[in-house]
Amino acid sequence: MTARIRTLVAMTAIAAMTATAAHAQKKYDPGASDTEIKIGNIMPYSGPASAYGTIGKAQAAYFNKINAEGGINGRKVSFISYDDAYSPPKAVEQARKLVESDEVLLVFQPLGTPSNSAIQKYMNAKKVPQLFVATGATKFGDPQNFPWTMGWQPNYQSEGRIYAAYILKNYPNGKIAAIWQNDDAGRDQMKGLRDGLGAKANMIIADKSYEVADPTIDSQIVALKDSGADIFMTWAAPKGAAQAIRKVAELGWKPVYLLGNVSTSVATVLKPAGLDNAKGIISTAYIKDPTDPVWKDDPGIKAWAAFMDKYFPDGDKTNNNNVYGYATAQTMVQVLKQCGDNLTRENVMKQAASLKGFTSDVLLPGIQINTGPNDFFPIEQMQLMKFNGVSWELFGDIIAGEVGH
Questions:
Q1: Which of 387, 403, 394, 386 has the alpha carbon at shortest distance from 365?
Q2: What whole-number distance in Å separates Cα of residue 317 and Cα of residue 400?
Q3: Residues 6+ apart with CB under 8 A from 18
Q4: What is the rounded (10 degree) CA torsion for 298, 299, 301, 304?
Q5: For all residues of the chain together, what is the average pLDDT?
Q6: pLDDT for the residue 22
Q7: Each residue's pLDDT tens digit, 291-316
Q8: Domains annotated on the chain, with CATH
Q9: Integer Cα distance of 184 and 221 in angstroms
């Protein structure tokens, strides 16, 4: 071996050792250390959408479980959750507090389209992950313009397309009336429905919007019934959805009733509306419903129920929002596991955009979480279900309602 080659071999070995050492070096941004990962969250614990507040409680309980089991790669999760009362200005205030005072690594699952819209520019300007937002608005899956924001649940346009496909197949001559929330969520949902109906979008003969803070939506429901429609689509938050179901029953109107997925909780929507009134309603699912007897012996639901008993005993086991909170927290834990010792905000987003075939034990069989650098829509499959007066029953196949990325 010549001296030159020996030197090269030695230099290569040194370079390799240096690279390994660099690789082993821990990298941290604010909110992460050898012992802790700080996660921020914003929920409507009060106000018109407070029914969703239980999601934040279920997430906090799941992180407590993770901590009790030794944390993530040896680090404990510190979960800091604030109430924004579903008010965009309050959401901005809480986001600033989390980023600038609490110095969290990321903000996880802030809830609601209006609140997330209000903080999106700020989070992206600060380069802090606004991760797995709790809303299906399509604008939260736009990596080109907002690389620090990512959704989690199926987006509303996909869901709208799935209902359109069902209507076209089963009620091709139907007349559709719709009520929708006057914000980006409602507009997205209606766009999905219209796009899915395509050339037959004129089947929608009447639609009315409402404000989430409206005390009642009775007048809109009366007008929609009077339109002569025989298919009724409700895109509403839990309170409005419960009011709509009750009013339709009071009026003796018997349309084919479709209900947006965000308001399918038996505990917070269907019980207050009257279970009998909700009988026959059709919606979509992507997570297992704890009230459905089909999952009685399911290992995933059993694990979830054991988690509820131990870490969230006050939580309602008939409320699928508590299953949602568990599944989202599991996804967050997976991303942080993948980050290893490189807990930078950039790597958090990189790992969130590298989920392949990940599934939670409470997602419906066959539904997987897949993301990529240009695909910020983790879940794009759903299954139809019908309410039988006691619980939801799934029917048909898993349907993809993908919207062009």
A1: 394
A2: 28
A3: none
A4: 170
A5: 93
A6: 47
A7: 889 999 999 999 999 999 999 999 99
A8: 36-154+295-374 (3.40.50.2300), 157-285+385-400 (3.40.50.2300)
A9: 21
Task: Tell me how far apart the alpha carbons of residues 175 and 196 are, in angstroms, rounded to a whole number.
Answer: 15
DSSP 322-386: HHHHHHHHHHHHHHHHHHTTEE-HHHHHHHHTT--SB--TTBPTT--B--BTTB-----EEEEEE
Average pLDDT on 358-375 reads 96
What is the per-residue pLDDT across 237-260, written as a single tens digit (0 to 9) for each?
A: 999 999 999 999 999 999 999 999
d(CA 330, CA 323): 11
Is residue 44 within 8 Å of 85, Cβ to Cβ? yes
CB burial readout 190-205, b (16+ within 10 A) else e: bbbbbebbeebeebbb
Say yes or no to pLDDT of 12 above 60.
no
Can you give the three-state secondary structure of 8-20, one letter per residue? HHHHHHHHHHHHH
Residue 18 has pLDDT above 50, yes or no: no
Give the Å distances, CA to CA, from 204 to 174, 180, 200, 216, 335.
9, 13, 8, 23, 41
Closest C-alpha to 174, from 94, 104, 228: 228
pLDDT for 400: 82
- Predicted confidence band of residue 176 (pLDDT cuts 50, 70, 90): very high
In 3-state terms the chain splits into helix, strand, coil percentages (rounded to 5) of 45, 20, 35
Type of residue found at 285: A
Extract the tokens encoding 94. Answer: 């809480």
3-state SS class at 105: coil
Q: What is the DSSP letter of 269?
A: I
**pLDDT above 50: residue 21:** no
The residues, ordered by sequence, that sit 6+ positions from 26 with a Cβ below 8 Å of its Cβ are: 34, 341, 342, 343
pTM over 0.85: yes
